[in-house]
Amino acid sequence: MFTYSTAYYDLKNALQPLYEEGEATAIAHAILEHITGADKLERLTEKDKPLTAIQQQQYIITKELLLKATPVQYIIGKTWFLGREFMVNDSVLIPRPETEELVDWIVKDNAGKSPSIIDIGTGSGCIAVSLKLDLPQATVTACDVSSGALLVARMNASNLDADLEVKHIDFLNPEQVDTLGRYDIIASNPPYIPESDKSTIHANVLEHEPHVALFVPTDDALLFYRIIADFGLTNLNDNGLVYCELDRDYALQTKDLFESKGYINVEVRNDMAGNTRMLKALLKK
């Protein structure tokens, strides 16, 4: 029978062919805390405490999932974003730190204001919910093509007491887009990875996270940026702003696209890792 200590080392060692040591360590600790309810300090203090029969069964099943590259966030069913706990499952992308930086940019630019905001491709709702909570005077609309994602977004909004409107909208369908109103801010982390780049994606992303939220046609990598830019031309108020997460390999092309559509003061920023990852564009009418 596994103890707290032997289960931890068994899992960490099993994961190291898939992950770097630091990540394998973090995953092992997260899983053991999820299964046992004991935090790291408690498990270190009681390292020889055996897992219960139910915990051992959970451990075996969870280990099998992890060795199939299932993301730990999907197994636990939650992740953290800007200090808040968000529910996640395989209907939504797992929120990333660079998306936190995008939200932080929007919040700092608009603190004390009451903008109307639309989040295009909301997924878990991490952007929309965070903006509503950090800009409480804002009105926020969250859109997605995925019914499963919208269910998750609604649950996160409810759990975190964020009052926002959630809409099922396919931005590739002009008739659905025409039902939307006018906004001061467009926020989006759209699909942007060309299909041809699938071979470069880690298995835990490629085999488990929703492809509809990740990939675009190889011959049209800027598909959603073009759609967002065009949507802004008709649906942004004067002095409206677009904030987007970017594919670093197409960042400058995306900047050129917005400028070609008539946006001004188009700015791209690097994330903490030094990758060109965020864009802001202003539309004056």
How far from one another are the termini?
69 Å
Order of SSEs: HHHHHEEHEHEHEHEEHEHEHEE
Specify the CATH architecture of the largest domain. 3-Layer(aba) Sandwich
Biggest β-sheet: strands ordered side by side in the sheet: 5-4-3-6-9-11-10
- Which topology of the largest domain does CATH recognise? Rossmann fold
Mean pLDDT: 93
Our count of helices gives 12
CATH top level assignment of the largest domain: Alpha Beta
Q: Could you please describe the fold and organization of this structure?
A:
With 285 residues, this protein is of the alpha/beta class. Helix content is 42%, strand content 20%. It has 2 domains: 4-68; 89-283, Rossmann fold, CATH 3.40.50.150. The chain has helices spanning 4-15, 21-36, 40-45, 53-67, 72-76, 97-110, 126-134, 147-159, 174-177, 203-206, 223-235, 251-260; strands at residues 78-81, 84-87, 116-120, 139-144, 165-168, 183-188, 193-194, 215-216, 236-245, 264-270, 276-283. The strands form 3 sheets. The chain has a 7-stranded mixed sheet with strand order 5-4-3-6-9-11-10, with helices on both faces. The N and C termini lie far apart (69 Å). The mean pLDDT is 93.
Summary, kept brief:
This protein has helices spanning 4-15, 21-36, 40-45, 53-67, 72-76, 97-110, 126-134, 147-159, 174-177, 203-206, 223-235, 251-260; strands spanning 78-81, 84-87, 116-120, 139-144, 165-168, 183-188, 193-194, 215-216, 236-245, 264-270, 276-283.
